[in-house]
Structures are given as C-alpha cells and as structure tokens.
Amino acid sequence: MEYRSILNSDVKVSNICLGTMTFGSSPHGVVTYQCPSQSDEDKAHSILNRFAELGGNYIDTADRYSFGNAESILGKWLGKQSREKFVIASKVGLPSDPNHPLEAGLSRRRITECIDRSLERLRTNYLDIYQMHLWSKETPIEESLLAMNDLVRCGKVKSIGSSNLCGWQLQKIVDVCHFMGLSKLATLQQQYNLLCRHSELEVFPVCEKEGISILPWSPLKGGYLTGKFKRGANVSSDGSRVGFVARNESRALESTPAWSKMSGNDSYWKLIDLMRNIAENHDKTIAQVAIRWLLQKDVTSVVIGATSVSQLESNVGAATGWALTESEMSELNEESTITVAYPYKRLL
Ligand SMILES: NC(=O)c1ccc[n+]([C@@H]2O[C@H](COP(=O)([O-])OP(=O)(O)OC[C@H]3O[C@@H](n4cnc5c(N)ncnc54)[C@H](OP(=O)(O)O)[C@@H]3O)[C@@H](O)[C@H]2O)c1
Question: Fewer CB atoms inside 10 A, N or C side of the chain?
C-alpha cells in the first residue's frame, strides 16, 4: 500500500482503509447486520491480520456497526497489537441501541457517554479520529463541536471528522470551528463511487478549499461494482449483501440499492461493460478498477469492506503499482457522469 497524509497533519495513513461494518451481526438495525456474509470474530481477525501484513494501518469503525459488536471484535484484536502503529477511527451519532430512545444523536451528553463506551470496546485510551456520523437535526452544531473539541483537549481523541454532509452543512462546521477557535475538522467520510458522485458538486470543493481529507466509503456500491452479478440473473439465493438485499427489498440501502432497481438499469450495465474492458487491459478486476478510479481522484484513503481474506487481498491490489490512463479516467468519468438541474448545472 501507499501512505498519504491526513491533510495538514503528520498522520500518514494507508491509501486503503479497512472498514468494519461487516464485522459481527445483530438482529436489529440496517439489513447488512443480518447478512450471511457478515464476519464472525475469527474471520474478522483473519481479515485484520492480513490487512496489517499488507501494510494497512488505517481502520474505520462506528458504535453503530452491529450495535457495538464490530468495535468489540476490533478491540479484541487491537488489544494484541502495538496500538501506536494503527490509526483508529470511530463514529457517533446514529442510533446505537434500537430499544433506547436516548441512544441517538449528537448532544453533548451523548458524545461524552459514547466516547467512553467506544474506547472500552476498542480496548484503547484514545481514538485517532472521532467522526460525527451524520448531521443532527436536533442538536445545534455548536454544542456538538464544543463537546468534540473537549474530547480533543482531554486527549481521548486526536482529531475530529464528520460524515454524510451536504455542502452548506460542511461549510457551517468549518466556520463554527474557525470562529469559536475549536479543533478543525480533519476528515470527511462520504459515499463516493462510480455510481454516486454528487458530492463532487458542492461538498468536495469545500474539502479542497478548507484542507479536509476526503475518505470515500462504499467504493464498490455494496458489491454492485465488482462485476460478479450478471445482467438478467436471479441473485436472490446469493449469500452476498446484494443477494440479501434482493430478498429484503423494502430494507435496501442508499449504498446497496435493491436488485430490481439496478438489474434493469442500462447505464449501470454499460458502466460495468466499460469497467470490464479496462480491467482486462490491465489484467485487473472490475473491483480494482472501481477502487483505483477513486485513488486517482483527490482522496486520502478509500474505506473498503471485505467479507473474506481473498476479497481483501484482491481489493488491496488496487492500491499501488499500476494506474488507469488519462483516457481511461475520462471514459469512466464520462460513463458515470451525473445529471443535475439548475443551479448545480453551473458547477459542472
Ligand atoms: N460513514 C458512513 O456513513 C458509512 C456508511 C457505510 C460504510 N461506511 C464505511 O465504509 C466501509 C465499506 O463500506 P461497504 O462495505 O459498503 O463497501 P463496498 O466496498 O462498497 O462493499 C463491500 C462489499 O462488497 C463485496 N465485495 C468486496 N470486495 C469484493 C470483491 N473483491 N469481489 C466481490 N465482492 C466483493 C462484499 O460483500 P459480499 O461478500 O456480501 O458480496 C463486501 O462486504 C464500511 O465497513 C464502513 O467502515 C461508512
């Protein structure tokens, strides 16, 4: 892997970050936590071991993933490593206990409680990056940012990040931090892939202007950008997340849409055909092309998900030693282009 700096810092992270949303399971919550391809502790630890062997030093989790189980599984592994060799990021803000109305949001009360529980599960006394998982409609952003800043001041958190924002929200966070003299936002985790590019319009220009590291999540659109699904196929008995969502369509996710929505979508299949041609030119896989396209954009580290060691090894093959040509990048940009209306049209 290669290493890139979190902007305006000396913290160097592998250009592939291992996401842990697929660790553990839970009967509650979003559909992915019940997917048969979720990793139990042994499999998750094999994936983590291999990631570290391959040079990975950046791991992403959240209190939300499998309702704390993902953090606990990661913590059991982390407890046996040299903590200082890894950059560990977690998140707060999404509901983390389906039976508890207070277990959601970004109030001072919640942030100060959740950090301690995350640290305990992760068996560490600090997080490198603590991220607000989303924008809270209820808590004023000033309250959340003051609480996050206090965590930096007392050493529980080295830097703060955010996720899933639109342009005005990100700029507001930047401005509040600036005018209140708080710790700057270091990172933004955003869904970004060849099927989801709207953040390029307003959000990423803020990142560029303000020196915020972009961390794309769901680079393979939950599996849709791997080429493993065929046009006209019946995927509903598949053990994959896409297959699982096909059986539970009403609970499809923004990041893993329903099969019925994708299977008849001509532009999706045209994109896959193009990716297959490009992959063959380089003797690479379609998934590697998807991740490589992101790495050649202005991003710091791509947050991947893998449900087996072989998926991990294959995806890490996007990290270094080859590149898409300028004309391949242009073809991919063209085929994945987004249509937008006024006034956003003027931004393209
Ligand atoms: N900030 C946020 O709100 C947010 C939201 C979502 C995710 N994230 C972060 O981003 C990470 C990655 O998200 P994601 O899991 O949705 O990423 P993704 O890369 O879009 O999808 C990963 C899934 O695709 C399949 N896959 C991966 N590599 C493959 C390969 N080489 N060949 C065939 N199939 C392959 C696997 O599922 P199957 O084996 O089941 O097919 C895997 O679980 C998460 O773990 C989390 O850390 C953050």
Answer: C
